[in-house]
Amino acid sequence: MTLPSEVDVAIIGAGAAGLGAARALENSGLSVIVLEARDRVGGRGHTIIAAPDITFDLGCGWLHSADKNSFVDIAEQLDFEIDKTRPPWREQAFDGAFPLKERAEFIAALDAFYDRAAEAAKAGRDSSAADYLEPGNRWNPMIDAISTYVNGSELDQVSILDMNAYEDSEINWRVRRGYGALMEAYAASCPLALNTQVRLIDHSGNHVRIETSQGALNAGKVIVTVPTNLIADRAIRFHPALPEKVDAARGLPLGIADKVVLALDEPEALPKDGNLRGATMRTAMGTYHLRPFGQPCIEGYFGGSFARQLEDAGNGALAAQAIDEIVAFLGNGFRRRLKPLAESRWAHDPFARGSYSHALPGHAGDRAVLARPVDGRLFFAGEATSPNFFSTAHGARDSGERAAREVLTNGKFSASP
Fold first, then answer.
1. Is the pLDDT of residue 238 over 70?
2. How far apart are CA 88 and CA 136, in angstroms?
């Protein structure tokens, strides 16, 4: 599309936050445009058809805290089927890979770690979550592996206050057609400019001038929803500079969480919606979801520095690692039955540069700093600005709605020079 020369509100990014902002403004009477660098909406939510009978979310896939998740109502309104099957994360499909007795010991150690961390957080002093691992506990590497899935990072890089602030009702559902597909449907009424990469936000004058790969436009107000790594890396520049925002973004880096999907021959030999994980004494390990939705596939999940190493090794490295681990658990006969279909590489995505945010130790307060408006004209949203639902799509969407409310309560609009 041709960019308008001026709008009342420009929203940068068509992920969950940008879409939430746009939908909240659609009956406001204001002119709005959503500027998106990619050729699609959804940001870190992206559904693909990996094979004719396999739907796969390359990004977010679970409606976390579903009883508080705003996308649940949206899914129902848009007639997207919600699967309420309990996640298999704490169960194990094959005792041979992780015997029941050891599994119980691990879960007890994991729960005890979270209890110690929560108790310590009550004192209000921030520190590394790794400080609350029990010294010498045999399960510490696996507890750290769980952190790489949950936070995208090992525990030594995670703020204990931030970790404790996260709200988890432990009710987790899924969208049968895909979370990314739901976001695409949610975006249907939004005014979009795709393939439009924002390079500069000049707020030095009476209006805000936005320079993009498709030309420039003026806006009365701007809602910035891009991931923290883009702000920290100055992939989008501000004039005058906003060092407070850059510093806050650096305190909230995106961790890495990657997924791979493998087609499975003879799927009836494995349980539907099962979980597979080994009792390894290392953090560098994957976890596997067997036959999600009963589909003939296995989803693998890797996080933290191990996921980054696999990404850096090139296309196909996640699939190769997943196949090697699954074969080690289930036997060499499975190697011929597994075929790589697709994998994510979020750290190498130029418009994400990671998966979701965690606060570094000492930086739990940076979420509020990043969310704070500037001069009543620049507003900030995205999962990293959510105080309690960061790292989630609904936390991002709700933050966009919050930023839209701030826009509406912050005075007059002036898009003209």
1. yes
2. 28
Nearest to 385 by CA among 97, 20, 28: 20
Q: Which residues, 6+ apart, have CB-to-CB distance to 331 below 8 Å?
A: none
DSSP string over 308-362: HHHHHT-TTHHHHHHHHHHHHHH-GGGGGGEEEEEE--GGG-TTTSSSEE-PPTT
Rg (CA), the chain: 22
Identify the pLDDT of residue 97: 78
The phi and psi torsions of 164 (rounded to 5 degrees) equal: -75, -25
> Considering the chain, what percentage of its residues have pLDDT values greater than 70?
98
How far is it, in rounded angstroms, from Cα 256 to Cα 247? 20
- Domain limits, the chain: 51-57+93-170+254-348
pLDDT above 60: residue 226: yes
Helix/strand/coil (H/E/C) assignment for every residue in 140-181: HHHHHHHHHHHCCCCHHHCEHHHHHHCCCCCCCEEECCCHHH
Distance CA 296, CA 54 (A): 7
Q: Is the pLDDT of residue 158 over 70?
A: yes
Identify the band that residue 316 occupies on the pLDDT scale cut at 50, 70 and 90. Answer: very high
What's the whole-number average pLDDT of the chain?
95
List all residues 6 or more positions away from 294 whose beta carbon is below 8 Å from its beta carbon. Answer: 272, 273
pLDDT tens for residues 19-69? 999 999 999 999 999 999 999 999 999 999 999 999 999 999 999 999 999
* Alpha-carbon span 62 to 391, nearest angstrom: 12
User: Is pLDDT above 50 for 144?
Assistant: yes
d(CA 352, CA 67): 28
Q: b vs e for 23-59, b when ≥16 Cβ sit within 10 Å of the residue's Cβ?
A: bbbeeeebbbbbbbbbeebbbbbbbbebbeebbbbbb
Looking at domain 51-57+93-170+254-348, does it have CATH number 3.90.660.10?
A: yes
Strand order of the sheet with strand 297-303?
Answer: 274-276, 287-290, 297-303, 257-264, 338-343
In this predicted structure, the answer to whether residue 1 has a pLDDT above a threshold of 70 is no
